[in-house]
Amino acid sequence: MERYYYLLLDLGSLAFPLIASFEPRIRFVANWRGLFAGIAVMAVVFIAWDAIFTANGVWGFNPRYLVGVYFIGMPLEEWLFFLFIPYSCMFLYEVMRHFVERDVLAPVARPFSIALVLVLLIVGIAHIDRLYTSFTFLCTALFIAYHAFIAKSPWLGRFYLGYAVSLIPFFLVNGILTGWLLPEPIVWYNDAENLGIRLNTIPIEDSMYLLFFLLIVTTFYERALKRY
């Protein structure tokens, strides 16, 4: 049974959001075109990133918890992660748009973005020798800066609210992946390539990794919906 743990986590993450996608008030299914366009763009970037980091030992996967099917050096479960997790998180994003009618974070979205960009740039440059930290923080900073200063995306406040809510299930799922409740982690990290700061069992870099890939998905999702 252990060999199905990662696969079951993937499937469990998708189950409720997929079923609820047909709920008549939210009708998330109507937004699938923009959603899958965003996931496709994100996957091109992140699967390549994942494959390179896996090949260079920045992180890796415990065969004890895998079904044993691999593509370009990565397990099937990791490929599914890049489809199921953004799907689930974007479902939460749309739920928050529906039930929180006012964009409550709009007034602070730009100053928060500026502060976050500065922190990520400083930490990323200061730890340029740590591949996961520097690459994740610097790429995330640049993409946030693009939205804050160039695109001036009007949905950033809603994005940050959706992201904050998505952190709850993400930390549950990612916590299990990194060894919480298990004798060994499903996904291991080389701490020489990160800050060594863990939120429970999760490297702090994972929180920005999530922000970056969700921001890519949201960019194309909102572009397709043309709500602004």
Write out key terms for the chains shown:
single chain; two-stranded antiparallel ribbon; 6 strands; mainly alpha; about 230 residues
How is this structure best described in words?
- There is one protein chain.
- The chain is mainly alpha-helical and 228 residues long.
- The protein has one domain (2-225).
- 65% of the residues lie in helices and 6% in strands.
- It contains seven helices and six strands; from the N terminus they run H-H-E-E-E-H-H-H-H-E-E-E-H.
- The strands form three sheets. The chain has a two-stranded antiparallel ribbon. A two-stranded antiparallel ribbon has the order 2-3.
- The longest helix has 24 residues, at 32-55.
- The termini are far apart.
- The model has no long low-confidence stretch (mean pLDDT 97).
